[in-house]
Design a protein that fits this description.
Blueprint: E1 4-5, E2 10-13, H1 14-28, E3 32-38, H2 39-44, H3 46-52, E4 59-64, H4 73-85, E5 92-98, H5 100-112, E6 118-123, H6 126-132, E7 137-142, E8 145-152, E9 157-160, H7 170-187, H8 189-193, H9 206-223, H10 238-250, H11 259-278, H12 282-295, H13 303-311, E10 326-331, E11 334-339, H14 343-355
Helix pairs in contact: 4-5, 5-6, 6-7, 6-9, 7-9, 7-11, 10-11, 10-13, 11-12, 11-14
Domain 3-dehydroquinate synthase N-terminal: 62-174
Enzyme class: lyase
Organism: Psychroflexus salinarum
Length: 357
C-alpha cells in the first residue's frame, strides 16, 4: 500500500514502513535511539522491530507498565529520567512501540524532553493504528480523567504493520473496531456497513479497511489540526464514552472498560441523542446500533450510575463556557458539532441502550 504523505509527517504501511523508518534514521543522523515499550509489547513485539531497524548507534529500551492507570505524568517522569541518565539529547529519537497508551505517553514525553525531540509511532493495536497514533495528539490522564494533560505535535513517522495484530486478544481487536465504526458513521457509511455481517468479512481486506479508516481521521485532522471546529467530529461517541470509561476506571465496584468498549456504548447513546436532537432517522439509528451491539458486551447502568457518569461530563475537552457540547449525526456521514443535550434526553438515550439487550 502506498505511503500517506501528510503535511508534516508520513504514515507508511507494511514492509515499506520499515524502509521509511531506516531512511529517516539515516537522513537525520540521530545521536541515539530509544524505544519505548510496555511489558506486553516488549515480550511480543520488540524482537521483530529490533530485527528491522538499521542504525549505527546503540539502541536503548525503556519499559513501562501497561494499563490506563500508568498513563500519568509520573510515568513520564520516569521516562525523562531514563532518557537523561542515558545521555539523550536534542538529536535523539524516541520510537513508541505499543498500543494507544504507549503512543500517547511516548509522544508527550518526547514533545517535552529537551523542549522536543523527534519521535516515531509504531502502533501494535488496532486502536493505535486507526486512532491513537494518528493526528498528533499526545498526552496523559489526570487521575481517572482521560487525556486532560497533553500537546498536539505530530510524529516524524507512523509505521503501520498489521502483523502486530496477531499478538492481540479479541477484546483489544474489538476496542480498535469501535474507532473504525465511528469513522464509518461520521464519514463513510460503506465502511461502517462492511462490518454488518461478520460471516462475510474477509480478513485480507483488513489492511485496506485500516487505511481507509486512517484516511478519514487524517483528512479531518489535517484540515483542523488544533481542534478548532471540524476535528471535533472525531469525538462522536466520546463525550459519554469517556465519561463512562472514567467512571468505571475510578469505581471500586465496576469492571474496567477498554476505551473502545466505552466508546461503543457512547456511540449508541449518541445515535439515540441524534434522533432526539437532530431528528436523525430512527430506523438508521436502530440498524447502526444493532451492528455496534453485535461486537460489544452489554453493560448495565443503574440510575445512580447514570447520575455519576453525568458528573464526569463537565471535564470533556469540547466544553465551552460551562456548556457540555456533543457531536451528533444529522445523517450518516453528516456529523454536527456543539450540540446541546438535556438531562432528560441523556436519560432517554440510556433507556434506549438498555432496550437493545
Amino acid at each position: 500500500m502506498n505511503t500517506l504523505q501528510l503535511e508534516t509527517y508520513k504514515i507508511a504501511f507494511q514492509e515499506q514502513a520499515y524502509i521509511e523508518l531506516n531512511q529517516l534514521i539515516k537522513k537525520q543522523s540521530y545521536s541515539s535511539i530509544f524505544i519505548l515499550v510496555d511489558t506486553n509489547t516488549n515480550e511480543f513485539c520488540s524482537k521483530f522491530l529490533s530485527e528491522k531497524i538499521e542504525a549505527n548507534v546503540e539502541i536503548e529500551w525503556i519499559e513501562i507498565e501497561p494499563g490506563e492507570e500508568h498513563k500519568t505524568i509520573l510515568t513520564c517522569n520516569e521516562i525523562w529520567k531514563t532518557l537523561s541518565e542515558n545521555g539523550a539529547d536534542r538529536k535523539s529519537l524516541l520510537i513508541n512501540l505499543g498500543g494507544g497508551i504507549v503512543t500517547d505517553i511516548g509522544g508527550y514525553a518526547a514533545s517535552c524532553f529537551k523542549r522536543g525531540i523527534d519521535f516515531v509511532h509504531v502502533p501494535t493495536t488496532l486502536l493505535g493504528m486507526v486512532d491513537a497514533a494518528i493526528g498528533g495528539k499526545n498526552g496523559v490522564n489526570l487521575d481517572s480523567l482521560k487525556n486532560q494533560v497533553g500537546i498536539i505535535r505530530p510524529p516524524r513517522l507512523v509505521l503501520v504493520d498489521v502483523g502486530y495484530l496477531a499478538t492481540l486478544p479479541p477484546e483489544e481487536m474489538r476496542s480498535g473496531l469501535a474507532e473504525m465504526l465511528k469513522h464509518g458513521l461520521i464519514a463513510n457509511a460503506d465502511d461502517f456497513f462492511s462490518f454488518e455481517d461478520l460471516s462475510q468479512f474477509q480478513v485480507d481486506k483488513l489492511p485496506e479497511l485500516i487505511r481507509d479508516s486512517i484516511k478519514v481521521k487524517t483528512n479531518i485532522a489535517e484540515e483542523d489540526p488544533f481542534e478548532n471546529g471540524l476535528r471535533m467530529a472525531l469525538n462522536f461517541g466520546h463525550t459519554l464514552g469517556h465519561a463512562i470509561e472514567s467512571y468505571h476506571m475510578e469505581s471500586t465496584s465496576k469492571a474496567k472498560l477498554l476505551h473502545g468498549e466505552a466508546v461503543a456504548i457512547g456511540m449508541i447513546l449518541a445515535l439515540k441523542l441524534s434522533v432526539e436532537v437532530l431528528q436523525f432517522d430512527s430506523n438508521k439509528c436502530d440498524k447502526a446500533s444493532q451492528i455496534i451491539r453485535t461486537y460489544f458486551k452489554t453493560v448495565e447502568f443503574s440510575e445512580d450510575d447514570i447520575t455519576s457518569i453525568k458528573t464526569y461530563l463537565k471535564h470533556d475537552k469540547k466544553n465551552s463556557a460551562g456548556n457540555v457540547n456533543f457531536v451528533l449525526l444529522e445523517d450518516f456521514g453528516q456529523p454536527k458539532i456543539n450540540c446541546k443535550v438535556s438531562d432528560e434526553q441523556i436519560k432517554k438515550a440510556f433507556a434506549y441502550y438498555k432496550s437493545l439487550q
